[in-house]
Amino acid sequence: MTNNRKPVLALFYCQNVPDGRKQERQSLEKKYGGSLRLFPIPCSGRLDPIHLLRALEEFADAAYVITCPEGACRNFEGNRRAGKRMERTRAIIRSIGLEPERVGMVMGSREAPKGLPEQVEVLMESIFKMTPSPVHHQGCQPCQYDEIPDEEKNQ
Amino acid sequence: MKDASRLKRVLEAGEFAVTAECGPPKGADPDVVLQKAEKLKGYVDAVNVTDNQTAIVRMSSLAACALLKDAGLDPVLQMVVRDRNRIALQSDILGASALGIRNVLCLSGDHQCFGNQPQAAGVFDLDSIQFVEVVRNMRDGGVILGGETLAVPPDLFIGAAANPFGDPLAFRAVRLGKKIRAGADFIQTQCIYNLERFEAWLAMARDRGFTERACILGGVTPLKSPGMARYMKNKVSGMDIPDALIKRMEGVPKEKQRDEGIKICVETIERLRDISDVRGVHIMAIEWEEAVADIVEGAGLFPRPDTDQA
Amino acid sequence: MITAEQKPIDEIREMIAPYRRILVVGCGSCVAECAAGGQKETAMLASTLRMAAKMHGEEVLIEEMTLDRQCVKEFVLLLDDVIDTYDAVLSLGCGAGVQSVADMYPEVPVIPGLNTEFMGETKDQGYWTESCLGCGDCMLYYFGGVCPLARCSKHLLNGPCGGSMDGRCEVDPDIPCAWQLIIDRLEKLGALERLEMIYPPKDWSLKQGRGPRKIIREDQQK
Description:
Chain A is an alpha/beta fold. Chain A has a single domain (9-153), classed as Rossmann fold (3-Layer(aba) Sandwich), CATH 3.40.50. Helices cover 35% and strands 15% of the residues of chain A. Chain A contains 5 helices and 4 strands. A 4-stranded parallel sheet of chain A has the order 2-1-3-4, with helices on both faces. Residues 140-155 of chain A have low confidence and may be disordered. Chain B is globular and about 60 Å long. The model of chain B has no long low-confidence stretch (mean pLDDT 94). Chain C has helices at 9-16, 30-33, 39-55, 73-76, 95-104, 148-151, 178-188, 205-208, and strands spanning 2-6, 21-27, 61-67, 88-91, 110-112, 114-124, 127-132, 168-169, 172-176. Chain C is an alpha/beta fold. Chain C is elongated and about 65 Å long. Chain C has 2 domains: 2-118, Response regulator (Rossmann fold), CATH 3.40.50.2300; 133-208, no CATH class. The A-C interface holds A 48-50, 53-54, 56-57, 92-93, 95-98, 134-136, 138-139 and C 8-10, 40, 43-44, 47-48, 50-52, 54-57.
């Protein structure tokens, strides 16, 4: 029996990630239906574990952050701090039996910069392969999501 | 006087003193102690008994000293401040004296984390220097800490330990001075392999008049193997073992290594005897008490002088 | 400041297991400074506990609140308005904070979420070290501002011991030998001769001699 519920990714991203303005954001959220919720933040260094935890607690099966490339953070160390906090968040969710892969960080590349839509597409592919979070699905059989329907991919 | 410290009598007679070490067993069998006593009897002037060394639970030093006393040896009661507060320490001093024990060595003790009771509270109510002073005041002033008088003061020859190879060298002079001012009658040093460095330390002590106020006994430990030498060099704090010595041990076939270790030990003692102001040797042959006899004989220190004649 | 670290989550869950309505109470002072029980950490722990409860199908209400100081009666009283809603409090205060709340509301089980550790300093971001034992008779003047009681593993007053090597403590090479620090400091201050003195045995009665201590100041009372 397959689960009809779609997975939900909470994606935080540094406002300096290309093509992440309001228009692109709204269009991406529409494209993925309820599976993608985008949260722009002034700097990835501002990301606190609590943001990721609350997302996982309330609605998300996974919570990720996109940071600027190494050395390119306008606030110098913002992206490095984000990395350390990511590790802390992973340790916290691991301690209650939640898979650490449900939180993650994607660092932009200086040589081949990707815009938000491109990053999202790559991320959503792996999100759809993830089992539903036991926080929202306790008692259910862990199961795979359906393939992303072609009509949705082509929008 | 038979009841007095033999170690003290030997030193007062101007003889080169010999002391050795005896570790009590991890059990309640008194025979283990008596057997060790047999190996040492006649070869030494006094025997140190360690006090829960390395924070490992063993038969108490006080009990083992009482057994050695009955067996006709002159024990040196080692007391660490790690396990007992000032009440217990002063009490044990009175008890030791009552049992006829006439020598005490006041030590800090290895931290409890090293032994088999790492969850124990380390007491350290007094430190080793304060403890020396307490014992001196009990013996000479007839008072305990706080000034209350003792009905009968204890009779003890007081010792402290010194490390000529520890850090920082300049401060070691201050530390030795404090121990002697606190009342140490004799000092036993950490085992010596680097004689030049030892002589530098001794010169510093001599310059400050310490060698006249206290009897310094140089410590020696026979090496059993190059592995033991390497271990002591790398893993034990406050040791100085020259590489040349390790090479010497390595250059000898396995079955001859213990003999070589004894040989080195004997040579060290001979050199110590040549240094003025070294008043004796303290042989620490841990769990190798048989070696003591060989070392003492090899160094020409057997038989021990007869001091019973006043 | 007083430092503490959060207890393992399993231990906390075991202690709160019997309760259905839990208030997690943080403290904005020392434990916030060492990132163990401040508002942020309180929010994180509450969220984590709620997730764990959901994962195990447990029906439990877990809410959070942070007081400026959990060890001061005036702040603890702020719980008056809400305490009846809950059947237990998970306190992220230090030991003093936990007991302050427990004393105020003796009918409410107050569970400690932290292991309180030491009085110390924030040496650097994310790095705290122990520096004071609360002996009641500060001798820092004599030792150049380095406390031999708190920072020497054997709290010697006439150190160092024979285990000091390369300025490191025998217990752990990461621990500097406090006596090396004292010697170096007094040398800088030109006061090395202070160490010639034989410091007498410590008066421990000022720390533990009359049981748990208290201070009463009439000039500070209402």
